[in-house]
What does this fold into?
Amino acid sequence: MSKTLAIMKKELWSYFATPTAVIFLGTYLFVTLFTFFWVEKFFSRNIADLRPLFEWMPILMIFLVSTLTMRSWSEERRMGTIESLLTLPIKTSELVLGKFFACMGLVTIALFLTIGLTLTVAQLGELDWGPTLAAYLASLLLAGSYTSIGLYISSKTESQIISLISTALGCSLFYLIGSDVLASFVGSFNAEIFSLIGSGSRFNSISRGIIDLRDIYYYFSIIIVFLTLNSFSIEKLRWSTEEKHSSHTQKKLAVTLLVLNLFLANFWMKNLNSARIDVTEDKIFSISQTTKDILSDLQEPLLIRGYFSERTHPLLSPLVPTVKDLLGEYQIVSNNNIVVEIVDPRENEEIEAEANRMYNIEPVPFQISDRHSASMVNSYFNILIKYGDQFEVLGFNDLIEVKHGGGAESLEVQLRNPEYDITRSITKVMRSFNNTDNLFASLKNNIKFVGYISDSTLPDQLTELHGKIKESLTKYQKDSKGKLELEFKDPSKDTILAKQIADDYGFKPQMMSLFAQETFYFYLTIQEGDKVHAIGIPDDLSIDAFNNSLDSTLKRLAPGFLRTVGLVSPPEGNSNPMFAQYGMPQGGKQFRAIQQKLGENFRSESVDLESGNVASDIDILLVLAPKDLNEKQVFAIDQFLMKGGTVILSTSPLSVDKQRHGFSAQEYNSGLQEWLDHFGINIPKEFVLDEKNTGFPAIRKRMVQGVTINEPYMAPYPFFIDVRGSGLNNDHMVTSGLGQVTMSWTSPIIVADSLKSSHEVTTLLTSSEQSWRTDSIDLDPNMDAYPKYGFPVGDKKESTSLGVLIKGSFKSYFAGKTSPLMHSNDDKHDSTHHNEKDQTKEESVVTSVIEKSPESSRLIVFSTNEFVADDTLQISGMLNGTQYLNSLQIVENTLDWSTDDSALLAIRSRGHFARTLAPLADDEKQSHEFFNYALALFGLLMVYGCYKYLQKQNLEKYRRYNLA
It folds into this structure.
């Protein structure tokens, strides 16, 4: 080993003795930095990863290593010094390894000098260190492979130019075999075969964050094969050309067998899928424990069928093997409860007909082009998930994520979050398949039905319903097999009980109308331990409606059932395409994106609150930008909360009109201001602005010889608050995994101290300490007057709450008041043609005010009307170059947490483009860029300085040795 190190030191010193090392390192750093900041447009890309550094590494390394290795043996042969080397008491393998390690030492120094880029990205965003370190490892392995190839070729020729060209061609061949370019010509199946021997495909696999034994072995096999051939090539120079010995033939045979076995083992290891480590922080390429837990609930086989065409779009083709591997892992971890099938519908007409007819799966036309022509190809890229008679279909739009770069054709296509997409579809079909037949079997605890009903004073309408309810409950109790207990109590005969339910649940005596003489009790509840769930009185007083309400309540208590979200949003208004093209307002806000997103995991229903009631099958109420709610509508929301429900509210007293010529704000009446004030939640008529914000495209005017030129640029926009880091509550499941969220045109939330002391109040989102508030409705920036942010900066800067969660027992806004549903007709009351009894019969409404909610009630408030509106999401998508999902994800997370179904929270926010850079001004971007240039130059000078210092030390030792 000491002789190998001596050779390595000699070779490494020879690089620095000539300009070779400095030229190599300087060229590498220049090309790397230029590619990182200019070609890949790191800051425009706005993703906190090092892909711009490593994407070009397989190609860049080809030319650098070719230059480095071209003289290693060629110069020895040309100068005739190779004969001297062969006469030294050194093994051929030691000579070869010495040169190999010398080259690798120089490459390692070059890679180390890029550490400035790594530190910059880590400072500007949440860098995932796993893929970063894996990419450096992949770079070393790739360089080792190329170096071994270059050394072997150099040993076969005396010409350095031939060695350079041959090495570049040989390494390029290994790269192209597994590249995406070749995959688009040969199809996905053949591309998988070629990828087994392609250096680029193996590099991409490791740099993504997957340390796979097959990829590690591949690189080591290349290194060993060509170092063996190199040693054999040099060893042959020792042999006599006139005499042939049997040992020579044996060595040739041994080398041949070794090379073939090392090469063929790559194909043998193809199906070795389990020997790998996912080093990404969120384990995005591994089946999570969440998925394993969900799959353990499968009661019968589940079918996952992938429809992938052999010929597809070049950007989709490299993703197919990854999806196939992932589906295979699903089958393994499910203990064969999942059946995985991979088919190409274009090759089987029967399968294609079935896909189109039964599952509405159709090919998607893609435009592809080569150097000769452009053409269209109809391709399948779908996943079918089927459980019983329920199925879900995932198309390429559901599975991929597209990032638009700075150039016109600069696109990055990645699988968005395949495990989450597949697992949430499995969850949905499982919950849709479940029915009330196995409802009680799904209950974890026994439950009790308690009816607080007055027997003697019930109106006639309710007496008949009371009897039918008892009959129905008897059937439920029989089906429950001991899990359902029945109990009826009469508070009108027990004053202590009446006071208790009034204090605990807010149940007060009820009336049929304002003019009724008698009161009664008719409250229906399901009790599970300390939790009480109220069942509303059916609007039509029918037993079928009661059974549906009871089923809905039981499903909330039993895991494994699809939840229903009631969506309340303002009317969209009438749109006019002719007006739209001129940027004129198009009616109310639209929330179609969030509706579509809700449909992935929930059953979503639009709710009309005009009746004053929320349907009994609604599990959660999502209220977005409510407008001019009347008393009945507020009552419906209030009583839903009082029954133990969860209300998620996105509201603000200010609204924004988004038009082509700019933005304008105006006051916005939600109808809920007094309701929120009653609970101790105040949302002032102000906007929050923050120095930590997401940029916005603006126009800069410049005069050139009297001509005004409009130049677009990215300007800071303080109304788009960039919430990350300490602004997200990392201790709560709703926000802990988000990383970043943009809150657009948001008002402050002020929570009263009395509410904080009596309830569990959790702040989910806050602005930074550099934020301020304004009551100005001017939303267009004035960069001339305020060049830094476009708006005047407030004197008082402080962190402000933008989203809060309140849990506990709420007192109804309508406590002590008459129910808005119980109205009277004054004209009829005064008429002599109708007596009081007839009027009561006509105008009677079975209603009451539940004055107090159980402890399980939850109210979540986001103080903006805009952050999940369609037009706002489109703006955010344009700014980020990809579909912006974080605003939708925080709503989804809130819904999952509210239903006590947090399984998918752990894997929802994972994604390739989820980690964005912190907002930066142009001068800050330039500072970071120049810092990296300066750091690279400083590093290069330090390396050369270290060489000169060590050289001086060696000369001193040599002089002292001679003097001695």
About this structure: The chain has 35 helices and 30 strands. The longest strand covers residues 707-724.
